[in-house]
Amino acid sequence: MKNKLIVFGIMFCLSVTSFSQITFSVSKGSSLTAATLGYKYKKIVPFIGFQYYGVSASVSSSNQQFEYDPISNSYVVVTNSYNDDLKASVILPSLGVKYFFLERNKLKAFTTLSFTLPMLSAKSDDADFNKEINEQIDKINIWGSELSFGVEYFIDNQFSIGGEFGLSYIHFNYMDESNQIIVNPMTGAQLSTKASESIKLNIKPTFSKLSLNFYF
Predict the structure, then answer these.
(1) What is the tens place of the pLDDT at every residue in 188-202?
(2) How is the chain split into domains, by residue range?
(3) Which of 70, 165, 197, 213 has the smallest C-beta neighbourhood within 10 Å, fewest atoms?
(4) Alpha-carbon distance 139 to 90, whole Å?
């Protein structure tokens, strides 16, 4: 019985391997995924995707004002300056699946569905501002998904050029809660309460992209 199971397992692995390919795609466009790595089995390609956005900024300011100098017992002009370097990034890992539903010679039509969970990060040289901005990031929940249709033209079995059009859905949710003290104007008694703020935003842009697809 064990020998039969081993033989069956080997035959299954060989059959799957013979009909499957590792895929790699890079694309230019406005979608949530710029590069994907997948595994093609017959008409289905499950894949993982990746997109990255980085921002860096330098802020500097200076001004002069009068300040009291106790040593000279007079007002003197002093210069105040401020410098800060800020870096922020958004990493968009995604999971998805592509399905080829129609074939005409070297043309293959497909549809894709993917899900993205962005990861936000920010860093500032200003310790107080750095703490504040990361506290705000912790209060943000954001995710996205995409549904698209496209066509790939296969130059050979290992390479194709694709065009794709689809709809993105991005959900943004911000939730902030804090404790506050309110005072009864009649008695002056204090009462501890909670204050909350919620912002929900849904964005639904369309996108189009061109891709280079490699099948190994």
Answers:
(1) 888 888 888 888 989
(2) 19-56+74-215
(3) 70
(4) 15
